[in-house]
Each structure stands twice: as C-alpha cells, then as structure tokens.
Amino acid sequence: MDNATIKGFFNRVGPWFYSCFFTLIGYRSSLKYFIRRNHTRLGLREGTRVLDAGIGTGFLTVNLLKEAPVALTVLGLDFSIGMLVGLKRWLRRLALQEQLRLQLGDMRKMPFRNGSFDLVVSSAAMEYLPKVEEGIAECARVLRPGGKLLIISTRRSLMGKLIAVLWRNKMLDPDQVRESMRSAGMKHVEKLQFPWYFPHVIWWGMVLLGEKKDQ
C-alpha cells in the first residue's frame, strides 16, 4: 500500500484494536521481560537520548520507561494522528506523559539533526515502509556514532503471514534487514531473542540490534 493508504488505515483502526491484537498474541507482555533481559545491551543509562521511530501503540517505549534501571525520557514519532491520540490517553492513565514526548512525522524523513540520539528503537513499523532500507538509513542518520539501533519486525513465517493478512504489512527477511543495517553504517549486528515462554512472539517476531560505526 502507498503511504496515504497505510496512514488512513491506522487512523481508522486506531490504537485500541491494534493494542488488543498485540495483547492476544503475547507481544505486549513479552516486551517487559525482553527489556529486563537486554537493558545492558541497549546501553540504557542516565541521560540516554531515545527515539521510538514509528511508535504506534507505544508498547516498546512504555516498557523501556518502566523497566529501565534509570529514569528515561523518550521521543516518539509516528505518522498516524489516530495512533498518537490514543497513545496520549494511555500515557495519562499510566502517569508517563512527562517522560514521553510525541511528534507527528514520517520515519523516512525525520525532523532531527544527524546524531541526535543515543538509542533508536523501531517496533512493528519497518514492515510498512515501501523501502525498508530508507527507514533504516534514516534511523542510522539520527543516531550518534556508537549509538544503538533496535529493530523488531514481522519475519517470514506461518504466523507472520497471518499478521500480514490482518494488518496489511510486509514480512521481512532477517538477512536482508541485517544487510540494510550494515549498509547504513551499523556494525556488530546481532540477533536477540524473546523469552522462550512467549512462543507466539517467537513464531512471528525478529529482533536485530546494531551499533553505529565510529566516525
């Protein structure tokens, strides 16, 4: 689908149904334990500048804020006003609205300077881009040298096909995403795992973490 069609789809659906679906397949719960297990790898420390590119439901960032060993402030970017409005309501209920600033924008052309962030995360967003490498390159651009890029996406699998049918997204090949990350200037690209006790997430999700090369 083109950009306008995807945006209209999420504005109509809104975050409530999207959130229910992610909860049913175990993704929402799995992120808490994923962050607990990997916060050291993500380089979370006091003052870490974090961007969530394509924040959507906000599940990943909310767990970052709640499970990180230090207090964080995160900027969340999304092109769907419907998703951002729903996320704002949820943040108020969680009393996290002061720690997460939301901005409307396209993750393929972000309004941030080069090297603005220490950590860029993107969850269930890259698979909606016409060209995944464009989104990865832009995430790498706004990342400082030595910063980390975390990508969680739907991979090619049987359950991935079901998600793609329901949510009109593509399925991504981990090797191609890894190569795009390297082409964008990332090194030490590694595959991370969801906890084994969330098999529904393991069946469809892939997680890649890279570090930007020093310049």
Give a brief outline of the structure.
Helix content is 43%, strand content 23%. With 215 residues, the protein is of the alpha/beta class.
Notable features of this structure?
215 residues; 8 helices; alpha/beta; globular; Rossmann fold
Explain this structure to me?
With 215 residues, this protein is of the alpha/beta class. It has a single domain, classed as Rossmann fold (3-Layer(aba) Sandwich). It is 43% helix and 23% strand. The chain has helices at 3-24, 27-38, 59-67, 81-94, 132-141, 158-167, 174-183, 199-204, and strands at residues 49-53, 73-78, 100-104, 117-123, 143-154, 186-192, 205-212. Strands 3-2-1-4-5-7-6 form a 7-stranded mixed sheet, sandwiched between helices. Helix 3 links the parallel strand 1 (49-53) and strand 2. It is globular, with a radius of gyration of 16 Å. The termini are far apart. 42% of the residues are buried. The mean pLDDT is 90.
Strand and helix layout:
Blueprint: H1 3-24, H2 27-38, E1 49-53, H3 59-67, E2 73-78, H4 81-94, E3 100-104, E4 117-123, H5 132-141, E5 143-154, H6 158-167, H7 174-183, E6 186-192, H8 199-204, E7 205-212
Parallel strand pairs: 1-2, 1-4, 2-3, 4-5
Antiparallel strand pairs: 5-7, 6-7
